[in-house]
Amino acid sequence: MIHGQTSSDADWRRALTRFVTVIPHTRELGLEVLEVTPEMTTMRLPWCDDLLGDTARGLIHGGVLTMLLDTVCGSAVLPALPAPEVCPTLDLRVDHFRPGVAGQPILAEARVVRVTESVVFTEGTLWQETGRPLARGIGNFVRLGPRNTPEGFAEALFAEEDDHA
Amino acid sequence: MREGFDDVEWLARTRAEGDLEAWLALVPYARRIGVSALPDPQGDGLLFRLDPREGNVGNVLLPALHGGVVAAFMETAATLDLMLATRAPRLPRIVDISIDYLRTARMAPTLARCSLLREGRRMGNVRVCAWQESEAVPVATARLHFVLGNPAEAGA
């Protein structure tokens, strides 16, 4: 338990698993949440042929990497807030260090650099092979605040498996 | 002969014919999210369209399209538009993208228009604007840098 938070890392791992499973795009791609701490969120996108951007050369579509960075950075925001709020992406910058290759899962990690009253600053990294990053992302997210967060958002994240509609 | 972006003759022929269908057929992720190209009614260029598919949803409460899917759509549009717009056939490889999300993208068709702001010998810069109801009300804008590869050297 860190900073007196009532949710453990394991609770957050389940909550973010629910978060990415409710989102149709990431559910259909089978995105998995590996580890969540208040500082860092780690995910894994399993390989499937639909991730390709060039079938002849066997390269991953750059947009898959942007989508994954948006997802992992946006998810890392939630455990860093005093209470879960809806935080849409304000802007995102992705640097492509090397192309992703067919056949291997993509690992993603993101950390929250700073939380202000209105914005959450994050950065994320993707790789297939340890020590050889594919891309870096810098994502800034807007805090909509409790007033604009739908009622039951936090409860939905932490609901028991079988109450989930 | 193997068809692909690294096949110089195939690339030159499909480019001369403006056959974006042939290009999109080799881009599975663009097909999955439902990207297509159409003639720009206001000019000689192209518009790009993202189909509002259930699988593109990123927020079920609103519902809204996944911002990352919108970015992938805009990157696809920028890449294909660049491949048609350059003076000679080039194979773009993305260096970086910066995207600003201006409004929620709803479950409706999204259109995009690209501008090649600079074509250098090695680098290209493309700006993309994406909208739903009206071009004057963009849902996102993006800028991208690409390395402009020589297709003759890519097939090795």
UniProtKB/TrEMBL annotation, chain A:
Limits of the Thioesterase domain: 58-133
Gene3D superfamilies xrefs: Hotdog Thioesterase
Short name of any one Pfam family annotated for the protein: 4HBT
SUPFAM superfamilies (alphabetical): Thioesterase/thiol ester dehydrase-isomerase (SSF54637)
Cited InterPro entries: HotDog_dom_sf, PAAI_dom, Thioestr_dom
Entry keywords, A to Z: Hydrolase
Keyword Zinc attached: no
Protein known as: PaaI family thioesterase
Organism encoding this protein: Halomonas gemina
Automatic annotation (TrEMBL), chain B:
CDD domains membership: PaaI_thioesterase (cd03443)
Record-linked InterPro entries: HotDog_dom_sf, Thioestr_dom
Occurrences of domain Thioesterase (ranges): 65-137
Source taxon at top rank: Bacteria
Official protein name in the record: PaaI family thioesterase
